[in-house]
Amino acid sequence: MPSLREKMAEHGFESNDDYEFQVRCLLESPARGLRTLNIEGDSERRKTAFANALARALDFPRCLYHDFTELHPPQPDLILPPSRDELGRAEPPIEPLDQTVSEACAQSEGEPLFEGLGILFRTLGTAPTRSELAHILHDLQLHVRTPEHLRLCLYGRSEGLGREALADSALAQPLAAVVAAAQAWLVGEHIELRGD
């Protein structure tokens, strides 16, 4: 019968060390809950590969591996020097009210696009995840110019959407509405706030 080290090597983790004793101690001790194994080491020392190979070598149907290493501390706030005009004069900072109005205008310009996306996804009977929506918005901003482009974008970005569902004629109007809203969003009016 192959040793634990040999079984782990079959699943992609080769080592000169034998972990059979530690694993036997873990598995043969009385269980009062979930059995857990703490794996420590420097980064890039193949801890994840070890955990996965061990689970496969022991024929565990499921392996939950969580990285508890410390997160990087937040970056300090970046304070930019005041901007200057073409004559080298420093521009005054934007007043808080002007900043709020500017942000509100930018958000309201995106409302027809999000309304159109909502109608489109309700028609499809699905909803994208946050990351899928971020990719779709990125594509709408940079690449999508026609309803067919949008169909391809949705097919590639939304898991579970098949070509048949996207080819449905009931989507023609919602797709066209999203493309039109995206183009209006991108060709927004340039507003410059000045202190004078």
Can you tell me about this structure?
By secondary structure, this protein is an all-alpha fold. The protein has 2 domains: 4-57, no CATH class; 96-186. Helices cover 51% and strands 0% of the residues. The protein contains 8 helices and no strands. The chain has helices at 4-10, 20-28, 47-57, 96-124, 130-142, 147-157, 163-166, 172-186. Helix 5 (130-142) runs antiparallel to helix 6 (147-157) and helix 6 (147-157) crosses helix 8. It is flat. 11% of the residues are buried.
Q: Unreliable segments (pLDDT under 50, ≥5 consecutive)?
A: none
Distance between the termini: 84 Å
Elements, N to C (H/E): HHHHHHHH
User: What would you call the structural class?
Assistant: mainly alpha
Helix content: 40-55%
Shape: flat
> Major sheet, described briefly?
none
The rounded Rg comes to 28 Å
Helical region count? 8
Strand content bin: under 5%
Number of domains: 2
Mean pLDDT equals 78
Question: How many extended strands?
Answer: 0
Briefly say what this structure is.
This protein is mainly α and 196 residues long.
Key features?
196 residues
Summarize the SSE layout with pairings:
Layout: H1 4-10, H2 20-28, H3 47-57, H4 96-124, H5 130-142, H6 147-157, H7 163-166, H8 172-186
Helix pairs in contact: 1-3, 4-8, 5-6, 6-8
